[in-house]
Amino acid sequence: MSDLKVLAISGSLRGASHNTALLRAARDHSPDGVTVELYGGLAAVPHYNGDLDDDHHLPAAALDLRTRVHAADGLLIATPEYNHSVPGVLKNALDWASRPKGASALEHKDIAIIGASTGNFGTARAQLALRQVLAATHSHVLTGPEVLVFTAHQRFDETGTLHDPVTIALLRETLEALRTQILSRRAPVR
Amino acid sequence: MSDLKVLAISGSLRGASHNTALLRAARDHSPDGVTVELYGGLAAVPHYNGDLDDDHHLPAAALDLRTRVHAADGLLIATPEYNHSVPGVLKNALDWASRPKGASALEHKDIAIIGASTGNFGTARAQLALRQVLAATHSHVLTGPEVLVFTAHQRFDETGTLHDPVTIALLRETLEALRTQILSRRAPVR
Q1: Could you report the per-residue pLDDT of A41-84, keeping only the tens digit for each?
Q2: B133 contacts on A by Cβ (under 8 Å)
Q3: Do A47 and B132 touch (CB under 8 A)?
């Protein structure tokens, strides 16, 4: 059986982002049966505008995002916490991906949420806000394990490589749980 | 006494947006002592990127937004509801306005939230999500009246002019309440 493809989306555009570094670590330590690909195009996706959301005006970056999300077996989303919620840039991408009505790339998509912050709460509030949004999109969000990477700056070296064994194990466990959920939902009902 | 200046921000970029039309109506029917100015620059504010948030890289549109929010006596925000929450473009603007730490344009800003949808719930969920974000920014959000403009398409004419007297009265009442709150917070403590 071929590997499941998990598309990894970071809610931060910062070059030295801990959240993007977390996704790289998830890719580098992915368990058997799972291939993680980082999505690098979020910055290019313009602000959602209903006037552009048709076959004649759809921005290329929005189409690319929809196509990649549709093609993925699952998503791994790493969110920073801005003002107790998800960054606008991440919500914007989800708004594009969820449309048009009846053809949402997020509908019934299996998704794992993770997040990293330098503070003590590890994006707990942003992850809850994201969970609410992904309920609206009828996505299947993994309920555990929770990956709240607090004091993130202590867990990466100066090149952005994750060296904390607890977090590495948690990322592997998350991808294993995502794989199990994807496969179980595909199993034929007897 | 000169009029209080209320900056009106629409979370929708659509040309025929009901939310933008609602703000125009608020401007046209504003009560004595309040002048409403529509902010037209949201589309130009790029995605938040911490690498750009310093004196050397700050995008002109982000600076303009911060300057206008700082200068306003209060804000009137009209939000559509996308996936049970605020549009990414609106959250992105608030993310820029809330920074840098210690100089947030939203800190202690008086804000009224309104919203319009063609459905039956009038952006109730998006307004609650926005309220959560504006608690994080330490803004003073008006607790009432609530302006949940449901079945919005029935309340505007074909030119986008609000003709529903109940909604017009509610907008005036909201601006009056915002004015009262702004002035009361400025009153000297005896």
Answers
A1: 899 999 999 999 999 999 999 999 999 999 999 999 999 999 99
A2: 83-85
A3: no
Amino acid at A112: A
Count of structural domains within chain B = 1
Does A130 contact chain B (CB < 8 Å)?
A: no
DSSP E strand stretches across B47-117: 74-78, 110-116
- Yes or no: say if B46 and A12 are a contact pair by the CB < 8 Å rule: no
Report the predicted TM-score, pTM, of the whole model to 2 decimal places: 0.96
Is the CB of B49 less than 8 angstroms away from the CB of A14? yes
> Which tokens belong to A110?
């299996």
Q: Å from B166 to nearest chain A CA?
A: 28
Q: How far apart are CA B111 and CA B132, in angstroms?
A: 13
| pLDDT over threshold 80, residue A190 | no
Write the CA distances from A142 to A85, A111, A147, B63, B134, integer angstroms. Answer: 19, 6, 11, 39, 28
Chain B residues within an 8 Å CB radius of A15: 51
* CB within 8 Å of B103: residues ≥ 6 apart: none
Looking at the complex, report in whole angstroms how far the Cα of residue B11 sits from the nearest Cα belonging to chain A.
Answer: 10
Q: State the ipTM, two decimals.
A: 0.95
Q: Find the CATH number of the domain harbouring B126.
A: 3.40.50.360
Contacts of A86 in chain B (CB under 8 A): 91
Does B44 contact chain A (CB < 8 Å)?
no
> Are B93 and A91 inside 8 Å of each other by CB?
no
Sort strands A110-116 and A140-141 into parallel, antiparallel or unpaired.
Answer: parallel
- The structure tokens listed for B42 are 């949201």
Sign of CA dihedral B179, B182, B185, B188: negative
d(CA A123, CA B148) in angstroms, rounded, equals 30
Shortest CA gap B88–chain A (Å)? 4
> Is B89 an 8 Å CB contact of chain A?
yes
Closest CA to B103 of B130, B73, B70, B61: B70
**Gyration radius (Cα) of chain A, Å:** 16
- As given in the structure block, the two tokens for residue A79 are 């969110």
Sign of the C-alpha dihedral computed for residues A5, A175, A123 and B74 taken in this order:
positive
* Residues of chain B with confidence (pLDDT) below 50: none
Domain with A143 in it: 4-186
